[in-house]
Specification:
The structure is a homodimer of 150-residue chains.
Chain A (H helix, E strand, L loop, with lengths): L9 H24 L3 H12 L5 H8 L3 H13 L3 E5 L7 E5 L1 H21 L5 H25 L1
Antiparallel strand pairs in A: 1-2
Helix pairs in contact in A: 2-5, 3-4
Chain A binds a DNA duplex (30 and 30 nucleotides) through α4.
DNA sequence: CCATATCTGTTTCAGTTGAAACGAGTTGGC
DNA sequence: GCCAACTCGTTTCAACTGAAACAGATATGG
């Protein structure tokens, strides 16, 4: 059981796969819209729910707060987001799309989904569902392993 | 079809999952042996085949040559690798374990495999096989998509 | 042979990262 | 009320990253 074949070692395989996909997508976002993956994630999250605070985005995006802060700042600078202060609690931001931001979102979301769809043509629908379900369980197991350490 | 749910977007899901796993493993490597993931990958590759040149490791590890160069340098500095010059071609290195390196490998490989095994207890054996097979196909599809661009 | 192209591994450099320190705002206990 | 503890988002800082420049060694071809 000491056979350490890197190609069969799942942490390695997942890392290589995820990195290739990210690289491919980020190249497209950059080329088409001049933004990187953190900015794209902020857009994707705000596309579903608005307005949100930075912390809301941190929770929904699995990014740390420094990264979110910088991505939001970039998007505000590009004119895609408006950053208002919450009336009742001045620590909180109220982030939402500007008209330009909404327009960007409506062009960027289809690009991402089309690329994903083309990638996933190699799987049958129920294979994909099964794959996602197994990803869920792998993630759940990480939660459990983390929890039992404490 | 414009419903961009980040949690159902596979590139995002894979990225989050891969990052969590990497973080967990690298914490362990660092704590137990004082090395990071690039160093660990070099060790894993040399554990199967020796001696190798830096370029051989680049090809087998999916790391770029700068990263390999730095990881090798770290391991040589720690006394785990010997870096000799190839007699017939002085551009090439001949990298191999020192006794200390072999010893490190024999302790580090089981640690990685045990952690992986514990993580994968959440899947039945044939579920795992299926999952890996689907990963292969997803990676193959990336190859195909890249090839047809040219 | 000599000039040029190619290959190897290292180094440089500008950009990115995340942990930690931070300032401003708010809450809770007394 | 007031002080301490906490929360939110920004900034700092040291480490890491990879593309590109690089230097040395080898191959090619005229």
């Amino acid at each position: 059981m000491n056979d350490l074949d890197l190609d069969g070692f799942l942490p390695y395989r997942l890392n290589v796969l995820a990195k290739r996909v990210s690289k491919e997508l980020s190249r497209r976002y950059q080329q088409a819209f001049g933004i990187a993956i953190p900015e794209w994630r902020v857009m994707a999250i705000l596309g579903r729910e608005q307005p949100l605070s930075s912390n809301d985005i941190v929770e929904r995006s699995h990014m740390d707060k420094a990264k979110v802060s910088r991505a939001v700042n970039t998007l505000v600078g590009l004119g895609h987001l408006s950053r208002d202060v919450h009336p009742g609690d001045q620590r909180l931001l109220r982030l939402s799309f500007t008209p330009s931001g909404r327009d960007l979102y409506q062009r960027i979301a289809p690009l991402a989904l089309e690329w994903e769809a083309q990638w996933l043509t190699c799987l049958l629908p129920d294979e994909l569902a099964h794959y996602k379900a197994l990803c869920d369980r792998l993630e759940q197991q990480l939660d459990d392993m983390g929890a039992e350490e404490a």
